[in-house]
Design brief:
The chain is mainly α. The chain has 17 helices and no strands. The protein folds into 2 domains: about 1-30 and about 70-165, no CATH class; about 180-305, no CATH class. The protein has helices at about 75-85, 90-100, 100-110, 120-125, 130-135, 135-150, 150-160, 170-175, 185-190, 195-205, 210-220, 220-230, 230-245, 250-260, 265-270, 275-285, 290-300. Helix 12 runs parallel beside helix 14 and helix 13 packs antiparallel against helix 14.
Length: about 300
């Protein structure tokens, strides 16, 4: 039984004849299914009793546990889904399914009849590695975010941390973060080789305020190059915020590289956004060859508190 999503879940993706978006891929059936795994017919292996001996008895299931019953795999899945909907805290159920029935776990987490909600999303994120083996990451995280309610930012955070170079994170960021799209992704990707390219991708998507917020949070100059291609004034504002966070960031080099051989007037636009004397003095040290910027800094630094 393949995990299924509702038709039209991803409006921009074609669907296969069976209604499953192509990014979900095929369930990995290379390994033998676990005992009781939904989607695969199963029967308990019980040795035949000796003549005259009593038939063996099976231990009683724990209270509230989702136990398979005789019948079709869909009947078994129905039982598991009913159990999932009845639980206030589904973490124990998700842990059991992750070990014994990962296909059923995918159905419960983000299938067409998934219960959804913040508690189920958080329980699913604990087993993200298992679920990524059943579904593609590109299909799993957007679908889980749709079901997660208030936990959607947590879904984005896990997706960005596990897949910092993934291009689909940009679209997911817009859906979840709105005007601040890009902050979570860029903070997660800051230590990854794809960081600069991620900045460019968010700039091209119009996630300007997210880039500015990420630059200020991280104290990293890389977003400046991406912002210059969109709006030089915003890039100058972001440069000031970077220096306020990290005076050691050479924003002049980044601005000059993206602007050209005469960056003086552009760098001067950074000055009004400086909030600390350390930031202003750092900019001064990199602006000795920029007369307009130099004059502005010499005028404002004496009035700035140390």
């Amino acid at each position: 039984m393949n995990p299924t999503l509702p038709p039209g879940t991803f409006d921009d993706e074609p669907t296969q004849p069976d209604g499953v978006p192509p990014e979900l891929g095929e369930v990995d059936r290379s390994a033998p299914p676990a005992h009781g795994e939904p989607g695969v017919a199963w029967a308990p292996t019980v040795a035949a009793p000796e003549r005259g001996s009593a038939a063996p008895t099976e231990p009683a299931p724990a209270a509230g546990a989702a136990t398979p019953r005789s019948g079709s795999p869909r009947d078994e899945l129905d039982t598991i889904l009913r159990s999932a909907r009845a639980l206030e805290d589904p973490r124990e159920l998700y842990a059991m399914l992750a070990k014994t029935a990962p296909i059923a776990l995918a159905e419960v987490a983000c299938g067409a009849r998934a219960p959804g909600g913040p508690t189920h999303a958080r329980a699913a994120l604990l087993h993200a590695e298992v679920l990524e083996k059943q579904l593609t990451a590109r299909g799993f995280y957007p679908r889980l975010a749709e079901l997660a309610g208030e936990a959607a930012p947590e879904v984005l955070a896990v997706a960005a941390r596990r897949h910092p170079a993934a291009t689909w994170i940009v679209k997911l960021s817009r859906k979840i973060e709105g005007q601040q799209a890009g902050v979570t992704h860029l903070v997660a990707a800051a230590g990854h080789p794809s960081f600069t390219q991620a900045c460019v991708a968010h700039a091209e998507a119009g996630h300007i305020e997210g880039l500015v917020a990420a630059a200020a949070t991280l104290g990293r100059p890389e977003p400046l190059g991406a912002l210059l291609a969109v709006d030089p004034a915003v890039a100058a504002r972001a440069a000031g915020l970077v220096l306020n966070t990290n005076p050691n960031a050479n924003v002049v080099a980044w601005l000059a590289a993206g602007w050209g051989p005469e960056p003086d007037l552009l760098v001067a636009r950074v000055v009004p956004h400086l909030r600390t004397r350390a930031a202003a003095e750092a900019l001064l040290s990199w602006s000795r060859h920029l007369p307009h910027t130099l004059r502005m800094l010499r005028a404002v630094i004496p009035g700035m508190a140390r």
